[in-house]
């Protein structure tokens, strides 16, 4: 595809909501703009994966096995639930998506952050990181009964992932700037990788072949690339900040999307997801108000998509064609209630925004996942003590009250062969 000179104002004053919904990516190459990469060739070579990793079925779509209907036999009989960890009330709420009601709740450890499906899909782990304390833990939940088991003491488990071969759980020890690789059943420590230049290490995704992972560094405005084969840091990349960003105003006062000069010198990268073809990584940035695009192999930023205030969570659609982006509505870690929270939908192929869904009356969409049938996007309302169900066809929103400061909820069960962690990064 020939290069084209494209100029898109990130979030200019007076920009209409309709215009924001149609914004699309400007791909930066040495300061110039270019079109997105050409589509994959008709014949795509097979992917040579690391030993023990399940094969990549479709090299053009790493999400092919998470499509509607592709449920593992392992999750047969699992309860259909939305599991919600509430950070400040130290509990988990279980919501029945059919009745839209809270049907169970129970106390867990201190500071539950995320509900993480295990690699083998048999356990849901609650990561209780006990921020600024030393009594962190992991609480197992049996998805067949929905009930918790005995917590396992674990140091600083802010988040958790699994190596693509399933041999290790990766506990993201955010405060320690460290990744602890543990036995995925007993959680006994196997080995650790220090990431000294990655302050606020928290979210990750994995290369299509399982050789490396990229983690976000929230407090350093950067990402780090981890060699999973040789167990070492391959490098760091500071992410570029836009010249302007969206102005944070209460949802009730929000009219046309206004902008402000972006005075932040570094961003606050959050969630990260790989493109269907495995060539790019998309990184949500809460301070930059958009999604960075990074070439994973080269560890080089190649583009940026402005999406909304407080860009936070990223979730692919069940058909692997779209990326749902949750905008939390504030640049602050502890933001106000009823902010201009929203979800935008990015078309993977064109890297254009094709829809924008505000939360009626304001809200704070954070982390979550897509229902097994692809009809609903479930997200925690971080500042508003509620969760949201977005209709993925119309963008209509329903709300359910939960505990105090809901964070990384998961939808269960989900299609897929194995889990890489977080709130259900299945493949």
Task: Give a quick summary of the entry.
The chain has one helix spanning 17-21, and strands at 26-29, 32-34, 81-86, 91-96, 101-107, 112-117, 124-128, 137-142, 147-148, 152-153, 159-162, 169-173, 178-182, 189-194, 201-206, 212-217, 222-227, 232-238, 244-246, 259-261, 269-274, 280-285, 290-295, 300-306, 311-316, 322-327, 342-347, 352-358, 365-370, 376-381, 386-391, 397-401, 410-412.
What does this structure look like?
- Strand 6 (112-117) and strand 7 form a beta hairpin.
- With 427 residues, the chain is an all-beta fold.
- It has one domain (17-34, 59-412): Methylamine Dehydrogenase, Chain H.
- The strands form eight sheets. Strands 2-1-24-23-22-21 form a six-stranded antiparallel sheet, with no helix packed on it. Strands 6, 7, 8, 9 and 10 form a five-stranded antiparallel sheet that branches. It has a four-stranded antiparallel sheet with strand order 5-4-3-33, with no helix packed on it.
- The protein has one helix at 17-21; strands at 26-29, 32-34, 81-86, 91-96, 101-107, 112-117, 124-128, 137-142, 147-148, 152-153, 159-162, 169-173, 178-182, 189-194, 201-206, 212-217, 222-227, 232-238, 244-246, 259-261, 269-274, 280-285, 290-295, 300-306, 311-316, 322-327, 342-347, 352-358, 365-370, 376-381, 386-391, 397-401, 410-412.
């Amino acid at each position: 595809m020939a290069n084209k000179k494209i100029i898109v104002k990130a979030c200019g004053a007076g920009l209409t909501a309709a215009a924001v919904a149609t914004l699309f990516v400007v791909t930066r190459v040495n300061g110039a703009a270019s079109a997105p990469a050409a589509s994959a060739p008709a014949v795509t070579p097979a992917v040579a994966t690391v030993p023990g990793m399940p094969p990549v079925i479709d090299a053009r779509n790493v999400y092919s096995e998470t499509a509607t209907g592709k449920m593992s036999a392992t999750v047969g009989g699992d309860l259909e639930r939305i599991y919600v960890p509430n950070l400040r009330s130290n509990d988990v709420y279980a919501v029945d998506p059919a009745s839209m009601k809270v049907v169970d709740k129970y106390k867990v450890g201190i500071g539950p952050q995320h509900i993480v499906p295990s690699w083998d899909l048999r356990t849901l782990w609650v990561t209780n990181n006990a921020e600024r304390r030393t009594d962190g833990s992991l609480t197992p939940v049996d998805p067949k009964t929905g009930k918790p088991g005995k917590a396992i003491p674990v140091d600083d488990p802010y988040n958790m992932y699994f190596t693509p071969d399933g041999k290790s759980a990766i506990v993201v020890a955010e405060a320690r700037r460290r990744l602890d690789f543990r036995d995925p059943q007993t959680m006994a420590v196997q080995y650790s990788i220090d990431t000294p230049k990655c302050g606020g290490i928290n979210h990750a995704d994995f290369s299509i072949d399982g050789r490396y992972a990229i983690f976000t560094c929230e407090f350093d405005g950067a990402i780090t690339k981890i060699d999973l084969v040789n167990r070492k840091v391959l490098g760091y990349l500071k992410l570029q900040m836009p010249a302007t960003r969206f102005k944070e105003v209460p949802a009730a006062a929000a009219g046309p999307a206004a902008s402000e000069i972006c005075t932040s010198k570094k961003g606050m990268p959050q969630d990260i997801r790989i493109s269907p073809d495995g060539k790019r990584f998309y990184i949500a940035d809460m301070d930059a108000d958009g999604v960075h695009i990074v070439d994973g192999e080269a560890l080089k930023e190649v583009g940026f998509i402005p999406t909304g205030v407080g860009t936070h969570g990223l979730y692919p659609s069940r058909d692997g064609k779209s990326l749902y982006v949750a905008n939390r509505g504030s640049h602050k870690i502890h933001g106000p209630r009823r902010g201009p929270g929203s979800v935008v939908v990015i078309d993977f192929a064109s890297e254009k925004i094709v829809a924008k869904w505000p939360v009626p009356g304001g809200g704070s969409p954070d982390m979550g996942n897509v229902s097994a049938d692809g009809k609903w996007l479930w997200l925690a309302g971080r500042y508003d003590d509620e969760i949201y169900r977005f209709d993925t066809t119309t963008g209509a929103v329903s709300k359910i009250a939960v505990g105090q400061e809901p964070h990384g909820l998961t939808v269960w069960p989900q299609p897929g062969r194995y889990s890489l962690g977080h709130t259900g990064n299945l493949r």
